[in-house]
Amino acid sequence: MLELFIHNPWLIIVCLALLIPICGIVFGTVTNHRLQMRKAELHAGLVQEMLQRGMSAEDIRMVLEASPKNAAKRCHTQSAYGKESPAQF
Questions:
Q1: How far, in Å, CA of 57 to CA of 61, rounded?
Q2: Deepest in the core among 2, 7, 59, 82, taking most CB within 10 A?
């Protein structure tokens, strides 16, 4: 096997060029899957806690509909002073 790479050193570059994107795709897929699992766990825990507190199904539905689905996308950071400029000293 090593003889193949010794006689054809360009194969090392080709193998790396194929291996690196494949590793990136696998890493991204696994990370996305774990993120979705964690979101589902948090959602189920929230519903279970609300049921243990004795909330009705209608109350639970209202809470879940009121929670933002894409809070991170809609969150905009603002400066500490808001729209006003700080006082000049």
A1: 6
A2: 59
Contact yes or no for 51/60 (Cβ under 8 A): yes
50 and 67 in contact (C-beta within 8 Å)?
Answer: no
* Reported pTM: 0.59
Identify whether the C-beta of residue 6 lies closer than 8 Å to the C-beta of residue 12.
no
pLDDT of residue 83: 54
By the 8 A CB rule, do 74 and 68 touch? Answer: yes
CA triple 42-62-72, angle to 5 deg: 50
pLDDT digits (tens, 9 = 90+) for 8-20: 889 999 999 999 9
Rounded-to-5 percentages of helix, strand, coil across the chain: 70, 0, 30
Number of alpha helices (DSSP H) and beta strands (DSSP E) in the chain: 4, 0
Distance, first Cα to last Cα, the chain: 74
